[in-house]
Fold this protein.
Amino acid sequence: MSWLRLWAARLGGFIRGEHGDERLRAELDAHLEMLVAENERRGMSPTEAQQSARRQLGNTLRIGEEWREQGGLPWLESFFQDARHGFRLLRRNPAFAVIAILTLALGIGANTAIFSMVNGVLLRSLPYRQPSRLYSIHEVVPQWTDLAAELPVNSGNFRLWRKDCPAFSALALTGQESASLIGLGRPEFVHGAAVTSNFFSMLGVDAALGRTFSRERSAPGAENEVILSHRLWEEAFHSDPSVLGRIVNLSGQTKTVVGVLPASFRFPDILASTPEYFTLFPQAAWRFKPGIGDHDYFAIGRLRHGVAPRQAKTQLDVIEARIARSSSGGKFNLYATLTPLKTEIVGSTRRALWMLAIAAGLVLLIICVNLANLLLVKNTGRLREVAVRSAFGATPGRLARQFLTEALILALAGGGLGLVFAEGALRLLVRNAPVGIPRVDGIQIDLRVVLFAIAIAAVAGAICGLLPAMRLARSQPADALRTAGPTVSADKRAAGLRGALVVGEIALCAALLPGALLLVMSMRHVLRANEWMNQGHVTTARFVLPFHQHPNPQDRERVFAAIQRKVEELPGVESAGLTSKLPLDGFSWGDGISFREIPRPENETPQGEFRFVSPGYFQAIGLPLVEGRSFSLEDTSKPVAIISESVANKILTGRDPLGMHLVMPASGCCRVIGVVGNVRDRSDQAPSLVVYLPVWEYASTSETLVVRTRMDSATIAREIRQAVWSVDPELAIPQVRTLRTIMQSAEAPRRYETWLAVMFALFAVFFAAIGLYGVVSYSASQRTHEMGIRLALGAGRGDVLRLVMRQGLVLALAGVGIGVAMALVLTRFLSALLFGVSASDPVTFVAVSLFLAAVAVAASVVPAWRATRVDPTVALRWE
Amino acid sequence: MGESKTELLMGTLDLLILKTLDSLGSMHGYGVARRIEQVSGDLLELNHGTVYPALLRLEQKGWISSRWGTSENNRRARFYSLTAVGRRALAREAKDWRRMAAFIGRVLEGTEGA
């Protein structure tokens, strides 16, 4: 730690000023006297002795310099000197200072805000014990990857993992539940989760009140225990501290409250809806045999210390291979995949956030280049100052440091203001953040963000200051002193540098714009693809029947049908229908789609979704009938099915779909009676392969009612609830949402990201245009004399105009050329975010190039016009 | 100035000062500079003043300590002496130096032999 002591001594010296000249002078004086005395003793004359002593002692000025450098923190001292000088200069030129600080603050603020999101969503660790060892586990059936790349987990397979996979110190399983919370006013719909008993202890989460589940599964009554989320405890139980031991009615089943989770607990976002209550897995869920199919649950594992994820995967895959062999006889394969839990939760937001961070960084770079240019021009006026200072012995390094310090002052001021901007921007960003972006509630400006802001401010300062500093430090002082003012010969190299900077700016712009434009086009394609959902007034209401009261599907179907009939009778209702799953929302049942007429081996059967709908559904939701007819009540005795256009195109490829027979595993064959339009699972995915079956074939406990009304009705939600409760007063309706809301919230993340990307692109264009304008008009003003001569010699105003404009255009075109090449690389990383447009879409690139050329024309036309106004007589007298 | 005088090799002054203080005990800057000159047999070109930044550097490293005192001819002077850390450092540096010198010697012999 000797360097620490050294710096402490230096810092002490700097603060106390004790290693200052006093002590050295005293020592040198004594030294000199002793030398003189010695010399005299050797027989020199007093003058001789003095001269010789001085020679022996050496250059005391240099020694003093060296001493001070050793004694304190010279660079800190000179930094303060430079800073004071810089402040004086800025005060003398406040307009420049304000512009520089404001634009830097804008750039740094935008970057800091985006980094806060990156930090809060991507970097911040999950709020569990040793979160980096937590992995989410999925299963993969390669033969089914067209349905889903990764599947949830079969609980039977999970049981085998627990037994035979020592790589994990804990493996926990969870599944979505929902229930009506009965007995506390109106029945309330709540989402919940079934978990294994080790779930909370694996995450390292303790109850705030009471306890979590005991690890001993056989504990009597454990299956009837329930744990509440902090929110549910607050909202439904008014934060009642005596809630422990209370009996709660969940969809008719009684459960005892044993614990309340802390407010800070966040359930890992792996289920469709955030659970508010937790129960243990019922024994029934564990009865599944290991196999392929019934992938209904989500598994999380904690890796043992020193075990790599790959080792765990290898162990799991040995088990999976065994399961695949014994259950399908090798017709299907089965693998497990491990994803770090955080990656799983953050999902696709990662790419979008990094994209935005890059865009923000490019904007800041453009701002820096602009400022570097501005400083370059400003500092040309200071050549004489530089010359004088270097004549007095300032080294080039010392001069460069001076200019860097000035830029750093600007940047740090900009950084400080930028943090204020970021705080405001972040509030806007978080408030408007769509539901689809995970972990938004944890986004804030913390120490890491502040450090980031300081760091990028320093980098920005360095970028702004370095070029001008290097150029000035290298300038020839003698030349500057000889000429009267800022030199007319305008130093070709400086002009070349400024030009290069503008080319760079426009290149950055051209690199950024295509990405933004591609995202906008994708957004338009997404909107068009889901446009059918935006027609008319459609309201949806999902409700759930308690399983233990309605254990059989026929009974459930009767209840649903009764509700549908009630709603159809409401005034203003055009049509109504039931479905097991809405487009863009919820989960569905996946299975192989095969037709009797096109036999295929089991493991080559395309996988698709099966949805159960009632007559009236297609009409209510607005899905167009392409061929054939819809379900009707006369079909109850006949096995029939309707397929989506995508099934007709992809699987039946050209054959007439009507009259084909769909092979069903249990009930034989269903005749295809109609083809309907395509739907998507996510707004920016390819259309799903969907088979619709009548709801009376199978009614699950959860169905969604779709209601089309003649006009926008604010009261329809209440009327629907009343209709439902008139059939069953204990039914809770979770959400009544319009179809438009569903569509908008499915598109919201994309809209949000696109909007931000476009904003950054516009910023970039704006600043690059300013930069181009600055350079063209500066060089035009430098050439006033030349223009005057040209005009005096008979050049037309058109010639002068062309001359100036050409400079701007040449710079712009060079920039566009470089930028487009960069963009071709950059947009490739974007392709995962694109929809309906290719990453190298030629139209986009041509449009961007033309647009930037137009911007360049606009930016150079004013200086060019000004140049034509030059009065030759005035211009010639100049100088 | 005679041609035979050599310039001080960079970085060797610290070692010379340490060794001098080791043999003289407590000594002021003048004494150190004279002693180095004497030991070199006046072969060394030494600006006496350069001793002082070096002394400060060694003091900051904690290898020597200093206090004001009175010189043999009754002048106020600052006296420097080796600390325990400095003594250990000297042993280490001296060893490094010998190894280096031996190595350079070997290299030079090699080139002369070729």
